[in-house]
Write a structure and sequence with these properties.
Layout (H helix, E strand, L loop, with lengths): L6 H84 L1
């Protein structure tokens, strides 16, 4: 390579090292981009699972509320029946 003294060779060496570094950086960037894509996919899956869990919990909460109502109804029925039996027994 023509140039003033070793300048031409120095520029060539610098250019080759820069190209090698750019290739490494590009490879690392592609790897990071791929890892980021995988992480975003994982996050999306976890968010979907979380939404499903919240729906399940809401359904369970509604079922528990219904069970409490039924339990209260049964307690009242037992109390009314006990009172009726006591009243009939006293007659």
């Amino acid at each position: 390579m023509a140039g003033f003294g070793k300048t031409g060779q120095n520029l060539k060496d610098f250019g080759e090292r820069q190209n090698a570094m750019n290739a490494q950086l590009t490879e690392k960037l592609e790897l990071l981009t791929h890892q980021l894509g995988q992480a975003l996919d994982t996050i999306a899956g976890l968010e979907l699972e979380q939404r499903r869990n919240l729906q399940r919990f809401a359904a369970y909460e509604a079922e528990i509320a219904d069970l409490h109502k039924e339990l209260d109804r049964l307690r009242l029925t037992v109390k009314l029946n006990s009172n009726t039996i006591d009243r009939l027994a006293k007659q």
